[in-house]
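Researcher: Here's a chain I'd like modeled. Treat it as a single chain, no partners, no ligands.
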Amino acid sequence: MKLVLGRDDLAAAALSAARQAGAEPERVDIKPVHKASRGFVNTSDVDLCELAIVTVLQAAAHGKPVLLLPLTTLGRHQHQTLVTLGRLSVADVEGRSVGVRAWSQTTGVWVRGFLTEQYGIDLRKADWTTYEGHHVEGAEDPSWVKRAPEGTKLPADFLAGRVDFGIMGNELPSDDRVRTAIDDAHDVAEQWSKDQGFVPVNHVVGVSEAAAAEHGAAILAAYDAMRSVLAAKEEGGPVALHPVGFTGLRAAFTKAAAYALEQDVIPRAVHYDELVERTCAALGVAPSRLGG
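Model: Modeled as a single isolated chain. Structure tokens:
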């Protein structure tokens, strides 16, 4: 039973619990963790894998054998990830160029959702550039999005002024010229989360259908162990940074799915109950067993 988890504390808990449940777990070390997604989704290279929430939605939309284990391994505010070098602001996005690592990158999906919902931006009136393809085979960029030349990187294009805005999380370059396009972005993000009742979720945990059939008891034990770790780390703020359980993740998944459909990230609507039902059927449990 092979596992890919970016956090050491979650990996240790999952390995110990799976071993006690009778499995022979092995942690596969892949960094950054998103590089494991393609092999997991398309060819089931590993059994349990940390995944971006949008990758889960794309996998469901394209019929991949991927199940949701409802644990948030990474949740964070996102408004501050839309950056610029000049005096432009979020109001200037239409008619300007915007770069994002991949069209399906979860940070990009959240930010584009904010642009349309909070700021009234017509995404098709911006000049979008992506730098990588999708993790899920069969997924493609919309016709109104262009791909940068092979070998080009977003941070370099951004710093050179070849794109006016960049949506960047961990790729954000260290440069004194960089500033957020949204004024008081952190305050805006915190208010958005208070209004919505959740922090945008980036990464969750996926399980292959084959693993659910072969290692069901170990997967449930790993879920319980990781849930306990996340609960102990929760900071007790107005909204949970790492929601767990099907009920805890419903709002974030529903919003992300709506954004993804509007942005042509997924070819059909993916309803949250579809994900819940598939996981529960594969593991032979009721939703309440996984916090639903």
